[in-house]
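**User:**
My hope is that you can spare some time for a protein that puzzles me. This is the protein in question:
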Amino acid sequence: MERLHVRLGTDRNAVGILSCTSWANACYAGSSRFNTFSRAAPSAATSTTLSPAPYSGEKIPTYLWQSIVAIICCCLPAGVVSLVYAIKVDPAIQAGNISAAKEASKNAKMWFWISFGVGIVVQCVFFGLGVIGALTE
């Protein structure tokens, strides 16, 4: 008899796993069970999912707009890394994983400032080379 076993994943989404105990018997030609599928009643452990309480503590900044500005104006590679971490903050809060949200926020902030610093240095170098080039002509 076929059964649908439900397993709770780490991302709080139920993942279905099909377990066929008599797959060969169910699928041969002429079987009356070929097009049938029966589901076992879920147990109490798998049918109840508890969602975490909404986070009402300190606001965890995402640094999303700063990351986008860093991508456009400063240093593209470090800005993209900052954006990736910034995007991870809200889903971690919604999942109730506050420590992961704080870690992602901290990394987004760090990579934003790295991007900003590299962008400023590169702009100063180009400005200096432009001034030197203008003075030598």
Summary: The beta strands are 2-8, 14-20. The first strand starts at residue 2 and ends at 8. The mean pLDDT is 76. The helical segments are 23-27, 44-47, 64-73, 76-94, 98-136.
